[in-house]
């Protein structure tokens, strides 16, 4: 896919993530945001805190990769490495397979407040800004370290898509938690 189309699609997804989080979670009381369907499952806020922990790592890494970028002369296709394809497959929201998260990224049993939701929404604004700046970067040559093992690197385009898919996956999880609590789901258009 051509770079500008790829980035525009990611921006659309992030806009949808933000709109859904605002519509579904902003009006909820703290008890609903902290409700867990099962003792071992995550609450809505734990799902969002997990994503915040990833954003605290990846957003500065994206900024660093994008900042020195010079505009490329021609439209390029976004390319994927074997590792990039596997990483995207792992976080694909359509995938049913569960994956164990690293202890430092697992917010289970944390004492969380609505500030988690506010931070999540701020991260979405930052990500949208970075996606608009990324049009000047070579998404295939710039790399971003992988959070769990920083010697491994993803191409910038792969890493951007990884974060967005990961957010979609856990937003769906948070919506399932809301539905299991008997909270009505809003229609977001």
Automatic annotation (TrEMBL):
Domain DinB-like, by residue range, is 25-174
| Highest taxon above the source species | Bacteria
UniProt cross-references to Pfam families, sorted A to Z: DinB_2 (PF12867)
| InterPro entries reported for this sequence | DinB-like, DinB/YfiT-like
Gene3D superfamilies cross-referenced by the UniProt entry: dinb family like domain
The entry's protein name is DinB family protein
Q: Which organism is it from?
A: Nibribacter koreensis
């Amino acid at each position: 896919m051509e770079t500008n189309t790829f980035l525009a699609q990611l921006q659309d997804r992030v806009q949808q993530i933000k709109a859904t989080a605002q519509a579904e979670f902003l009006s909820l009381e703290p008890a609903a945001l902290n409700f867990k369907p099962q003792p071992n499952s995550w609450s809505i806020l734990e799902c969002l805190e997990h994503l915040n922990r990833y954003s605290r790592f990846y957003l500065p890494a994206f900024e660093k990769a994008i900042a020195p970028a010079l505009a490329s002369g021609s439209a390029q296709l976004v390319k994927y490495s074997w590792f990039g394809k596997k990483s995207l497959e792992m976080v694909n929201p359509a995938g049913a397979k569960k994956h164990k998260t690293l202890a430092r990224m697992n917010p289970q049993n944390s004492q969380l407040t609505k500030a988690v939701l506010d931070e999540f929404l701020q991260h979405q604004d930052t990500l949208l800004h970075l996606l608009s700046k990324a049009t000047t970067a070579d998404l295939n040559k710039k790399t971003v370290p992988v959070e769990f093992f920083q010697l491994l690197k993803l191409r910038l385009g792969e890493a951007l898509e990884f974060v967005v898919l990961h957010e979609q996956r856990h937003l769906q999880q948070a919506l399932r938690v809301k539905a299991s609590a008997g909270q009505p789901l809003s229609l977001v258009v």
